[in-house]
Amino acid sequence: MLLSLDILGFKQIVKPENNSHSILLDLYTNVFNLAFGLGQTGGALDPINSEGIPQIKANLNNKKYNFISISDSVICWTEKEACSSFIDLLMGIRALLAISYNFGIPLRGAISYGEMDVISFERNSIGDEKFTNQVIIGNVIVDAHNLEGKQEWSGCVIESKADFYTKNSQTESCSSPIKKCGRVY
Predict the structure, then answer these.
(1) Does the global pTM surpass 0.90?
(2) Burial of 82 from C-beta contacts in 10 A (0-12 / 13-18 / 19+)
(3) Which residue has the higher pLDDT, 93 or 175?
(4) DSSP string covering 132-158, please?
(5) How many Å apart are CA 38 and CA 99, to the nearest integer?
(6) Cα(172)–Cα(184) distance, rounded to whole angstroms?
(7) Per CATH, domain 2-175 is 3.20.20.70
(8) Would you kindly state where each structural domain of the chain is located, as residue ranges?
């Protein structure tokens, strides 16, 4: 299960005349830490204080999925092929869409299903520094990215093959998180 997101209006957000680098750093740190923290942990947060400013730091002991963000692209993926992972990803994108929009960062995304692999290489350098390099491969990345690019709105679409988990009871019992009690969420 993979989610591909695009930050809409990224070029305008990062222009030096619109925001300084330090403002961008604060914005992204706050938005992504809060949103992904909420989504990845199912809402389990630890309040902390930093220089007298109340902040929220995610407790990632119960992390539900992985993410990486480079420039205006965000990719999230689950480790398990389970209905509960699908729902966790939906809950995470819901939190991210709401929080980022509130901070003035609209997102557009697509969730797809398919094979992918994450290959990690950990290297030791001179001294105590360690470096981890990752390669993420799979057609699901292309599928999600292409579907995300076709959207003309801020939000997230679920590819029909990603809805597999709500229709298949062979892996585990799962009611649809999309349609429940006659309501669409």
Answers:
(1) no
(2) middle
(3) 93
(4) EEEEEE-HHHHHHHHHHHH--SSEEEE
(5) 10
(6) 22
(7) no
(8) 2-175
